Amino acid sequence: MLNLLLAPLSEDFFLRALLAIILCGISAACLGAYIISRRMAFISTALTHSILPGIVAAALIGVSLYLGAVVAALLTAAGVAWLSSRKGNSEDSAIGVMLSVMFALGIALMSVGHAWRDFTGLLFGSIVSVGTGDLVLIAATSLFVVLVLRILHKELELASFDEEYANLIGAKPSLLRAVLLVLIAIAAVASVRLVGALLTTALFVIPSATGIRLGKCLSEAMIWAAGFAIIGGATGLYLSYYVAGMPSGAAIVLCCAAPYFAVRVLKN
Amino acid sequence: MSSSRKHWHQMISNACFGLLPAIPYSSADTVACGGIAVSAKELEAAASPGSPIAFSQATFEIPCGCRTALIGANGSGKSTLLKVLAGLIPQVAGEVNVLGAPPKLGRSRIAYLAQKPSFNADVPLQLRRLVQMGTYPHHGWFEECQHSDTAVDRALERLGLLELSDRSVHSLSGGQLQRGLLARATVQGAEVLLLDEPFAALDQTSREIVEAFLFNTENNFTVVMATHDPADSQRFDRILELKNGRLTTKHACVGHDHRHA
Predict the structure, then answer these.
(1) How far apart are CA B44 and CA B58, in angstroms?
(2) In the predicted model, what is the mean pLDDT of residues A86-108?
(3) Residue B171: exposed, middle, or buried by beta-carbon count in 10 A (0-12, 13-18, 19+)?
């Protein structure tokens, strides 16, 4: 049994993948607690899909695809923050608008620029091909996200829980919302590389949705969520290693979802 | 939290403060109020910018320490007036001062309790943390609150909530929640409490505790409270009535209370 666990670790690609999913899992779980409690699950979907125009544009100009993705995600985040800061505009509708606009822009760019190419890697990710450079990028992103969340924890918690009081004492809830969106944007771009655009949402949403049912406060929920993300991510990786033909992204998401359903059933 | 972890937090926040400028989001205003908590002259306001004027030409004064009732029918502008005083909405015309300065956001000396708290029910939160939020204006950005446990305990105790302090906010009754919010205002050190119908959701026990707290003469805060119940008005030092867009001060009761000059 122990041998089954240790054998893959001797392979470099597996070790890198494991580290990557742990790092991404932690930052996604911490952000996810806010995403779930602020009912913004849709935002991570929007951010991962809206990077398409950025990637296409970057491919056309010939700069780093990652840079293009970050710029597009930040633009989307800024657009959502700006649209939803107006009275009478819900965050939900702002996200819906930005998602469609950015995706359409990406498709238009692809057609006009004749940049049709294989974007399957973008859709499904390829965690097993993560290189050392990617790993450094992911580590830096996760560290930055967790650090900012730690520093602004009490303000973010307050603004999520009681926006009016945050406003009254001058803690600027709309500025905090923008900070949160930027963090989600850069974390989403980092994890698209791992599990793909379609499944990044799962990494943000599922472990946190499990954790928030177990934690008595937000920080407890984050710790639970990070735990579930790490366990789910590692189990998924092992599964895809041993089961022939099992894609890693799908295995990770399925392994993250299992505890969610368990908690849902057991803790009613 | 253990003391070693506290120490660790302290070190981190000290390090942050070394690198980043301290930006307290609450203004540290210390303007003396000169015995007048609230004064308004020809005040005119609307529920939101662009909507019809709720009241106009309101001129009144509320001395420091005065318990004031704000009465009037539904839609007469009670909530609007309280929101103007809290700095949540700007006045349309006229002049208004709270503790010697025009209302604005970020003044910890003023606390406002909405008629219905608009909490996000999806954020898990314990009652103690809710009350602790009252210390945030004194901490500013980046700093976790650390030295406030005794103040939080005292406030919880005064409002009869000590044994509930570890309960989830979302499992509390309306009355217990209202008391929690008053505890938060106390911890915040508010000198002016703006309360929008605090008794609307209270059961008998909570009501008694809240009344005892608000009318305790040892508490030297000023209360401006919107209320529907005429029976309440007996206990107040001063009554402001909003009717047909006009405000009248009734029962300014010289001699009724020693707090009045």
Answers:
(1) 7
(2) 84
(3) exposed
Length of chain B: 261
Nearest to B123 among A153, A169, A218 (CB): A218
Separation between Cα atoms, residue A222 and residue A28, nearest integer Å:
10
- Closest chain A CA to residue B116: A164
Is residue B165 within 8 A of residue B71, CB to CB? The reply is no
Instruction: Round to whole Å and give the CA distance between A144 and A128.
Output: 24
Task: Pick B124's closest partner by Cβ from A38, A168, A212.
Answer: A212
> A226 vs chain B: nearest CA distance in angstroms?
16
Q: Which domain holds residue A185?
A: 11-116+127-266
- Best mutation target among B123, B125, B164 (most A Cβ atoms within 10 Å) is B123
pLDDT tens, position by position, for chain B (261 residues)?
Answer: 455 666 666 666 666 555 544 456 666 666 666 788 898 899 998 888 888 888 888 899 898 888 898 988 888 889 999 999 999 999 899 999 888 888 888 888 889 998 888 888 889 999 999 998 888 887 766 666 655 678 888 889 989 898 998 899 989 888 888 899 999 998 888 889 999 988 877 888 888 888 888 888 778 889 999 987 766 667 888 888 888 888 888 765 544 444 443
Sign, CA torsion A38/A39/A44/A46: negative
Mutate to test the interface with B, among A39, A90, A156, A168 (most CBs of B within 10 A): A168
Q: Which chain B residues are within 8 Å of A154, Cβ to Cβ? A: 133, 136, 139, 144-145
CATH number of B67-87+102-250: 3.40.50.300
Report pLDDT digits (tens) over B103-132: 888 888 889 998 888 888 889 999 999 998
Alpha-carbon span B45 to B57, nearest angstrom: 9
For testing the chain A interface, which of B16, B83, B108, B133 should be mutated: the one with the most A CBs within 10 Å? B133
Which domain CATH number covers A151?
A: 1.10.3470.10
Q: How many CB atoms lie within 10 A of CB B62?
A: 24
Taking only the tens place, the pLDDT of each residue in B165-209 is: 889 998 988 888 889 999 999 888 888 999 998 887 788 888 888
Q: Where are the domains of chain B?
A: 67-87+102-250
By Cβ distance, the residue of A37, A167, A168 closest to B123 is A37
Let me know if residue A170 belongs to a domain: yes
Tokens 């009554």 belong to B239
